[in-house]
Amino acid sequence: MNDVDKTAPRTEAPEAAIPASEMSADDTAPAEAIAEIKFGPDAEAADVGADAAEPEPEPEPEPEPEPEDETEMLRAEVVELRGELLRALAETENVRRRAQREREDVGKYAISNFARDLLPVVDNLRRAIDSVPEAARADETLAGTLAGIDMTEREFLAVVERHGIRRIEPKGEKFDHNFHQAIFEIETTEEPPGTVVEVMQPGYAIADRLLRPAMVGVAKAPKGAAEPAESAELAEPAEPAEDGAA
Predict the structure, then answer these.
(1) For residue 28, is it within any domain?
(2) Are residue 156 and residue 173 in the same domain, yes or no?
(3) At residue 5, does pLDDT exceed 50?
(4) Predicted confidence (pLDDT) per residue in 153-177, tens digit
């Protein structure tokens, strides 16, 4: 009865806890070091270093285009570049032509304002000649003066003609509202309606541009007479262009 059962498990009594007051400095140092490692200022740096050490995932490579798709892309790019080249060449040609036309206009119409200002001078020369009656022209002194004025007028017209300025004296021609200005109408059967029968003041044009319209009288059919289908257009002429510098 008093024998101890040899098969029963043996239990050891737990060691009694050592009070902290009785623990030495050597016994408490490891615990403090562990706490400092786990919760100290170096813990956060260690976590950051661990995160930085982790490699970033590499981006997945883009799939390479198929040879047929790449060919189509290159063809489309070639077509686009060719179109841009053609547009650039067309714009360059337009600029060249515009510059050439402007140079030609400057050469033709540079003296337009200067020539227009000189027109009253030649008009006065003609008025001086026409104002002398036929009876007075027999006087030798006056005849010499008239000859000098007439020579001056002819020389002036020759000079301006060399610079592309022409005189417009449309007597007997069809009325043209682009170069003529109708001042009055004359009923007559001697000339077809719409014909210039009298020139009050000659006009002038430089190249194909009007400097001053000719002031004219135009024939028209008498009252009661049948007018032809093509009657004169007694419209105001086009305004002279203000091109060129004096």
Answers:
(1) no
(2) no
(3) no
(4) 999 889 888 888 899 999 999 999 9
Please tell me whether residues 137 and 175 are part of one structural domain. no
72's tokens: 């189509």
Q: Which structural domain range is residue 119 located in?
A: 112-163
User: Which residues are bridge partners to 185 per DSSP?
Assistant: 218
The reply to whether the predicted model has a pTM over 0.90 is no
Overall number of domains in the chain: 2
Beta-ladder partners of 214? 180
Is residue 212 included in any domain, yes or no?
A: yes
